[in-house]
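Risk register update: the risk of archive-format incompatibility is retired. Evidence:
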Amino acid sequence: MPPELDSYGNGFGFGGYVARPGAWNAGEFGWDGAAGTKAWLDPVRNYAAVMMVQFFPWGAVPIAEEVRGAIRADLGIVMT
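Archived output:
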């Protein structure tokens, strides 16, 4: 899809977002649902996760990065 369809440095393709080369999470892909649900797969770091929540508006409860950080810490993944 065109570069102007951008969300936090990610592009969008069929079925979800794709982290672009040069992004801190390059290679990751997934989906952010309208009510806060998130799913992401990271083939570079070899893990996948789903976070199931329900709140409106999107982003009203900023827990996604906490959850993502906790998962990476538990798996011993260090982001460079």
